[in-house]
Amino acid sequence: MTSATVYDLATKDLDPPFAVVDLDAFDANGADLLRRAGGKPIRVVSKSVRCRYLLTRVLARPGFEGLMCYSLAEAVWHVEQGTSDDIVVAYPTADHGALRRLAANDRARAAISIMVDSPEHLDLVDAALGQGHPEIRVCLELDASWRPLPGVHIGTRRSPVFSPRQAADLARTILSRKGFRLVGMMAYEGQIAGLGDAAGGGVKNSAIGWMQRKSIVEIAKRRAAAVKAVRALAELEFVNGGGSGSVESTGAEAAVTEIAAGSGLIGPTLFDGYAHFSPRPAAMFALPVVRRPAPKVATLFSGGYIASGPTESSRQPTPYLPEGLSLLGFEGAGEVQTPVSGEAARHLRLGDRVWLRHAKAGELAERFTHYHVVIGDRVDRTVPTYRGESQNFG
């Protein structure tokens, strides 16, 4: 039985559009992340999942410890729901309301560490909470981009703290401020963790691979020095690094105590472009055929689920099953219709399903209120996404 037939059979009583999670694939991807981590704990990146059932399932597995949330409001919500009592908020917050909720909740303050990369972040917390506020746990972010030459920046634009000296200076500032406790450090090497090395042509792949090898050596040395400088001033509970694409290299660093990963659980299309690991597609969505404008073209209802990031074709969803379909360059994936073409379209009838995969791991959950969890040829359960729990964290 082909995968399309299995998924069609499992969901025969459902009307598309809808989204499914293949639980066997999800679990297998989790096992592969643990293998690649080589014994270091993995902090689960919630934005790549955005479904409490799936987050709770993976956190119950030995080797996965704690959440990394993208929003402070999201982190407080997870504490309130009992999802985790160990959460790092990966991005600085300017949400005064969420800060007040954090300060008012003893359990949340014990569980959540917020991200800072400048004294101004501390000032913002003071402005939101007032002087004499309860102690807030903070994590210092070190910029992990690669800067081989003056003015050349390769990687994500995150923290202004780049050198070990800058990290130590910020640590001293945090330690001098009442109402804050420095508990961790983080550095995300996006140019390694978030950039596939097998997605383009040979020359492009070689260039990316060369850059990543150089960057791995540089960040390992600089991160170790920064951690040493900060540990000389404060006891750190954790040093977090990496992402699904850099589990091996980040985990090999002695200075790193835990690895962040989430997209590797889902296996979106952007993760098809890595040479050293291949996650199974675990989440996909079905659209119905509603038109047959030509023998080799079928038009699907809806489908314009475009991923964030640079505007390019890699951010569009990809037809997955049946095999042999592709989007039309002129229309792409649209708000109300998505035409697909290919030899396989000849055999599609009105009402048939076409299965597509999203480019990014978590953003599919923003389009659907529920995931139908498939095991083999049956739907085991239907669970809410964040949207299905009426949560929208921006």
UniProtKB/TrEMBL annotation:
The protein, known as: Alanine racemase
Record-linked CDD domains: PLPDE_III_DSD_D-TA_like_2
Ranges of residues in domain Alanine racemase N-terminal: 21-267
Organism the protein comes from: Amycolatopsis oliviviridis
Annotated InterPro entries: Ala_racemase_N, D-amino_acid_metab_enzyme, PLP-binding_barrel
